[in-house]
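Sequence in, structure out. Go.
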Amino acid sequence: MKRGKHIADHVVLGIDLGTQGLKVIAVRGDDASIIGAASAAVPSLTPAPGWLEQQPEDWWRILCELLRKLLRQQAIPPESVAGIGLSGHMHSLLPLRADGGIAHNCLVWADTRTQPQASRLAQLQERLWNPAIAPYSLAKLLWLREHRPAVYAEMAVALFPKDYLRWRMTGAFATDYSDASASLMWDFAARQWDEKLLAELAIPSHLMPPAGDSCAPSGRLTTQAAAELGLRPGTIVARGGGDAACAVVGAGIPDSDTLLINAGTAVQVIELIAQPTPFDVQRANRYLFELGIDGRCFIIGALNSAGQSLDWWRRLLNPAQSHADLEALAATQPGAADAPIFLPWLQGTGTPFLLDGPYGSFAQLSATADQAALTRAVYDGVAMGIHLCAEALVGADGLASKQLLFTGGVPKSPLMRGILAGVFGREIRCRSFSDMSALGAAAHGAVAAGLAESAQSWLADFDYGEVSQPASDSLVEQYRSAYGRYKLWAARIAAQK
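Output:
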C-alpha cells in the first residue's frame, strides 16, 4: 500500500445500494479503518403479485440525506473526501431516456414477472454462460419490450442500480465488468457484451453501457451533484461493482481454499475460480460472475431468502417486535431432529434447484408446534438452506476441505452463528464488520483516487473477524440428522414444480 503523511487526512466513501436499504461508510485512507456509517431503508413497490419495483429518485434522495448526515456527525470536511466507490444489487434493470430521464421504475432482481421470458431463454441455454432464470436482466429487458413497448422504444440505455447513482454524480452512462456479467448478456471469453446473442434477440447493443474495471475512475462529481451531496466538485468516482463482487473484495479477496458465504437479505456462497467455464446443464447449480478487478471470476450458489425469511417471519408474528425479540424467542427452543422444518424459498429455491416462484414451506409439523418452535425452525431452516447451497456448489468433499468465512448481517446474530457452526459441524469464521459490499466499494474508490495500488493491498490491515465453534458434539449430531430430513423435504417440495 502506498503510504504518505497526507493520506491519513484522506477519506474514502463506500456506498452500497442494497435491495432493502442504502448504506454509506466513511473509511480512513491510510489504514482502511471505519470512521462512521449511516443507513436507511429503501422503499419498494409491489404493483402486482410477484412484482417488485423501486423508484430511482428514492435512491438519490436517501443517498443525499445519508451522506450529509454522515459528514455532519463525523465532522468530515468535504475537501478531505478523496474518492467514492459504488455497490448495488445485481440483475436489477433501470431503463433511462437519452437525457437520463427515468423511462420506467427499476425492475428489481427478485421480481418474478419475467418467468415466461426466462423460460423462452432456456431454449438458448447451451449458448448462455448462466442459467436462464427470471432474476437476470435480459429477461427483464425482454419483458419491457413485450409489455411496455413505449418504454422500450424511448429507452436509450439500460443501467444497473449503482450505475444510476454514478450517472447522477458524474453525468456518465457506464457500468463495470461484474454488473455486466450478471445480466445474462455477457461473453465471458471475450470480456464484452455478447454481440451475437443481442443480435439474435434483436436487442440494440447501444442499450448496454460501456463496461470497465471496478477500480477505474469513471468521472468526477459535477457541481450540481456535489451541492446536493454536500461534497466537493471534482471528487473522483470509481466504476464500482455489483454487491456480490464488492462483498468478495471487502472480505479481503479470500484464497481459493476459502468458501465465502455472504448472508444478508439473500445468501451468496462464493468460490473464486481461475478461469470462467460455460454453463453445464448437467451441473445446474451455480452462477458465474466477474470480480470486476484483475480479470478474475467467481462462482456463486444462491439462497434468495435468508435474512428476508427472518424478517418475513418477524413481521408475520408481530411487526412491532425487533429482531432481538425474535432471536430470544427462537433461543427458547433447542434444535431437534424431529422439530419442524422450514424451507426458506420465499423467492424461488436458488441453488441447487434453480426454480422460480413461491416454494417456501413448513414441513414436519405436529399439534405441539407453537410460535417458538416455528421461529426456531425458521432460523434452523435458513442455516440448513445455506449448507444445502454450499454443498451443491462445491460438493460434500469440497465443502469439507474448505475454510468457511461468513459475512453479512445474518451472522451478526450470536444465535445464528451458533446454529451455523452446528449445522456445518465445525469452526466458522465471521467478519465482525458486516457491510462487506460497502467496504469493497470503498476499496474501489481508494484505488481510483490513487491512495492504493490495489483493493487487496488497501484492505490488508483491516481489522477482521471472530471464530465460532459448535456448542457440542451432540448438537452437531442432532443437526446432522435434521439436515438429512431437510434434504428429503427439499427434494419433495422442488419436485412439485
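Check: The two ends are 52 Å apart (CA to CA). Residues 1-8 have pLDDT under 50 and may be disordered.
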